[in-house]
Every structure is written in structure tokens, then in C-alpha cells.
Amino acid sequence: MTAPRPLATGAGLLERLMATVRPEFRTGEEFYPPPDSPVFFQGICRIPACTRAVSFSVKGLCTHHYGRWRRAGMPDLEAWILCEDPTTRWRDNPPGCSVARCGRASRGSRPLCARHTEAWQRAGSPDLDQWIATARCDPTRRDDRECLVDGCPWRTDSPSMTLCGRHYIRWRNNGHPNLTSTQMRDWFKVLELRRNPYIRLHDLSQQIRLEIQFGLQRRHDLGTRHTPPSIVSRAVSWIRPAELTSLLDWDEADWLTFHQARPRGLPQHVPRLHPGHPLRAGRLTDR
Ligand SMILES: [Zn+2]
Ligand SMILES: [Zn+2]
Ligand SMILES: [Zn+2]
Predict the structure, then answer these.
(1) What is the DSSP pairing of strand 53-54 with strand 43-44?
(2) CB 13 within 8 A of CB 247
(3) Ligand sitting nearest the alpha carbon of 113
(4) What is the pTM of this model?
(5) 158 alpha carbon to ligand 2 midpoint, in Å?
(6) Backbone angles phi, psi at 108, to 5 degrees
(7) FRET partner for 62 with CA separation of 20 to 30 A, picked from 102, 193, 224, 230?
(8) Ligand nearest to C-alpha 59
């Protein structure tokens, strides 16, 4: 391939980037675009109970629900949405246990927490509605505690647990990391942000990351070009192995040469920097 040809980047580009890229775009190794941004997203998933933002949608569904629809054999979409909505509502926002004053999240397909599911089974699994009507939870004898996740209304299943049943399952299904209480609260906040498409900016030099963040900020401020996070992430995955100091080190021909051997070609959005691009022209105050 052609040897990289350093281009004039102007003195103090890093410093100017640091002064220009706003804090909401300097978010470290991951960038979570605002879900209501028409630049990064096209709307919300068509499943009414699903709150995921959609960037590159097929059938108006988020990636999760599009996968579920395909695995269901791609049935009639409108009918499938009607069936899928209550399933999503139950999974993402399960109702509380139906036993009076229990205060725990329901588990599984019954409107009971884990403890009351066990109690109902010990009673011989009688008619569920009748059993719920007579079951009582004595608040003076309870030994559970509030779930540590901010804003969660549910109590834990036992005094030794720090998470309610709902958050325990999410923790278990997402790698069950060993964390302190403070770390766990932050971990759940990130988990929530990752429900929407986001951009990973790890293993990049500070300047390259800032240049990409500047590009994202520009797209956001201009508000005219759809910029799906998946496309940017794909471009970043090709910028990473180039190991440049700056995107300006190469022009478009260099990028084409570098990526020629790659099977899927050059991405359409990044890192094309036309001669008038404010980063190339050094017009970093151009917002
Ligand atoms: Zn969805
Ligand atoms: Zn219960
Ligand atoms: Zn909880």
C-alpha cells in the first residue's frame, strides 16, 4: 500500500479539538447518542411497549424485535406486533407480585414473586386467584430490603440480596459481574444506555477519538444527515487498525488503498474528509 502522507494538520489541533468538542460528545470509550436525535435515530421501535431507539430499521423494529420476528418465521407483521407487545411489556416492566403488601417484582409467567411462587407450590398449587385473595404478607416480619438500583420500586427476595428479582435476572443474564453497590448502580445505568444503538470508541488515540467526536458533534449540530451508530461503529473498526495520529494523515485515496483488501469495501460516512471539511480546513470554531 501507499505510505501514509502526512497532511498539514495545523499547530495545536489536539488543543483546539479539546476546546471545541463539547462535554456531551467527549464521553470516553462509548458514545450514547441522545435517543430523541433525528440525526442518529429514526424513531422508536414499532412495538408499543418497547422504548428502544431505532437507527437503521427494517420493518420499523429495533434489532432485538427484528431478530425475534425473524426467529418466529416472519409471520404477518401487524398480527405479530399485537402478540409481541404484551410479552415485551411483561419482560421489560413486569408487574409487582399480586400478594397484598408484598412489594416484590413478579418472576416468570405468574404474577407472583419467587417467594410467593414457592409458597403457592408448597400449598399444592391451588387455584391461583383464590390463593392470591387469601395470601397475606406481614410487613412487621419482613426481612427483605429495597433494591439498590436507583428508582426501582421493588424489594429483594431475601436480606442477603441487594437486587430485586427483576434486576437480579438482568445482572445474571449480562455476565453477572462482581461489583460493589456503587459500581452496581453505575453498571445498571450503562446497561440501560446500551439498550439503544451506541458507538464504541475504544483503543483509539486521544486525538483520533476527539476527531471522530468532533464529526459526531458536527453531524448533530447540522441536523441534516442521518448518521446511524452502526455505520459509525463500522467505520471506527476500520480506523482503529490504521494506527494513525490523525484522520488527516491520509486522504481519501490512502483510505481506499488501505481498505482495498477488505471484503466489504469502504464505509460511506467516515472517514471521508472532503477538502472543505472543517476538520481538514482547521475551522474548528465552525459549529
Ligand atoms: Zn423493540
Ligand atoms: Zn410476593
Ligand atoms: Zn430492582
Answers:
(1) antiparallel
(2) no
(3) 2
(4) 0.75
(5) 11
(6) 70, -155
(7) 224
(8) 1
